[in-house]
Amino acid sequence: MKDKNLITIEELLKNPEVEKAASNINQELIERRKYIPPKCEVFTSSYTVLKDNDDFKFSIDREARKQLPDIINNKVQSVVGMDSPEESFKQRYGKKYIIGVVFSGGPAPGGHNVIAGLYDAAKRANPETRLFGFILGPDGIIENEAIEITGPLVDSYRNLGGFTMIKTGRGKIDTKEKMALSKETCKNLGLEALVIVGGDDSNTNAAFLAQELIEDRIHVIGVPKTIDGDIQVRDAEGNVLCAMSFGFHTAARAFANAISNLCTDSSSDVKYWHICKVMGRVASHLALEVALQTHANMTLIGEDLSDYIDKERIEKAEKRGTVDYHAYGMTLRHLSRVICDGIVRRTAVGKNYGVIVIPEGVLEFINEIQVFIIKLNTIIAEYDRTHDTYFHADFPVLEDKLEYLRRLARFEREGASFSIWNTRDDDLFNDIPDFFQEGLLMERDSHGNFQFSQVETEKVLMGLVKDYLNILKEQGTYKIGIEKSYYRKTLEKAGLDPDYFGPILFKNYDDSEFFLIKASIISAKILRQELEKEGVISKDEKIPAPVEKIFQKSVPKFKTQIHFYGYDGRGNDPTRFDCNYAYNLGLTVFTLIANGSTGQMAAIMNLEKDFSKWEPIGIPIAPLMHLEERKGKLALVLEKSLVDINSASFRVIKAFREKWLAAAPGEDNYRRPGPIRFAGKSEEDRPITLVLNALDDAGRSEQRKTP
Ligand code: FBP
């Protein structure tokens, strides 16, 4: 029925409240755009120069020396402020530059501020300087798709998340043809410098481009970005040059806020286990930071699992006089047992709920899966190479791919050809669920990396957990603990004596706060038999209602809610830490360009300290490169930094594991990081991992000082 008193749509749309709601501009956006990040002390000088810093040494790979001869001897460069340099320097610094910038790989909060910092520094040195942004990542360079980055464009993206301004892509300039096209683009635009904002693979690419473009005097500068936090640079002596890439803090804080909310919900509703997969393609840095931020009940750290040694198995094998190679590293099955153990222990004290954090890349650290990944990477790359075609195009559906693998195993068995895929591999592979087979056979990214974000890791793991919990339930060891006071109240209310029934029902009818029904009583039928045996009831009598109620209450249901935290946090607006960090990286980039550097990566040292101690530097990329297997071949790449299980941050979460599991009567120990707060003073100003790991570094440098 139409209500005559309703305001007309025309009037409604003119209402200021409606206009406000329909506008894309809200107060948060206005505040963010207005914010001017502080500059590191050196950038307040009129000019910034670079000084080679010989304190840092690298152990250089022979292949890197061969392939990157013109940039391999680059040094770490410190940025120094200067107000009145020589006239020739002033001329070079203040000349009109044409600079290109590109985002490469996954978005990371803070990227727009790198551009803003670079833009501000470049325009300050010479307002005539022009900045071009390549669209959709490295493909934009290859195809010469660029836009000019203007003041209003920069202003509209200051302190905002994403890489929306010029987009990004995972393209790679990895062939002679692509390299030639990229060179042509740079020359056509008259670029003096190209800035690549990317992860380990993109900075690897930056080094090769720097080498290639040196003869054309086009300088290439890298900027370390990735939410994964796996670009951490140390010199040969372990001195930290880059402790963390920008974007990590924001993503971790966004994930932590959402996961902390689940901790709150879960401990209120007390019926769900929330399984939270968090991004980080391989390294578990994000999961580690989330653990520190939230104190979730269980957090798996991939690097810890691969380091696992089953001492019991080793001892047993030693007694037999043999070696048990399966005792090294954790298997998927064993991992599911570890998770079940935590679940069963919490449930025994009445907490059949909780939050489990699983790093996206956890499977990389599980022996048997890693073997599959490596073998399949090699098989796919080998196929593409020898057939000069494309495996995924030739075998579009799973069944075709499996048939190809079966063929390889058969050839191997019949001795027709040598293959790394044998019958045992094939049998094991056929034992895993379809969706997981599909995941493992999925297309690799342009850098040859396995795309963990596309695999339902949590589904694989939780499938095993569910199966094992069912077994434990049948064995009577997975039970909900019954609170003593609740038990007594329930029986007394019905006029039954709790002390009479207690020893019949429970295996621990003593001083415990939570009682556990005996393992043998796994059904109402067995309960009735038990009561009959004890002479409590006769054959025709019913189980007393309060006793049945207590039994039913002890039967657990394992209910899960699955979540994936990745793209959401990656798209979050940056924390103040990332805003300031990325902006100063942009300022550093301009210093590197204006001082004629190439093959360097902009970085800031002392990020864990107060802002006044931040030190902008240039890090040489080539000396950091080493050989790694990619697409079945050895390739020079920047090494990914994994979680160090001896680091302070890991040792801290290990020390608190039991406390945060909270498998004891009483409250959980959750921490509430809250949402990212751009304004106000209550926001944590830097990642906790960064601060904790620096405690180790402070210790190490003290040790170095002591003779
Ligand atoms: P970068 O290393 O390029 O920064 O990307 C990291 C990441 O966000 C990973 O955490 C994740 O595994 C992957 O990207 C997802 O890739 P895609 O965006 O292609 O789905």
What does this structure look like?
The relative contact order is 0.15. It contains 29 helices and 19 strands. The protein is of the alpha/beta class. The longest helix is centred in the middle third of the chain and has 22 residues, at 248-269. The model has no long low-confidence stretch (mean pLDDT 93). It has 3 domains: 10-246 and 576-638, Rossmann fold; 248-471 and 559-569 and 647-676, Rossmann fold (3-Layer(aba) Sandwich); 479-554, no CATH class. Helix 10 (200-213) links the parallel strand 6 and strand 7 (219-224). 46% of the residues lie in helices and 13% in strands. The strands form 5 sheets. It has a 9-stranded mixed sheet, sandwiched between helices. Strands 11-12-10-15 form a 4-stranded parallel sheet, with helices on both faces. A two-stranded antiparallel ribbon has the order 8-9. Bound molecules: 1,6-di-O-phosphono-beta-D-fructofuranose. 1,6-di-O-phosphono-beta-D-fructofuranose (FBP) is lined by residues 105-106, 108, 170, 199, 226-228, 279-281, 360, 452-453, 570.
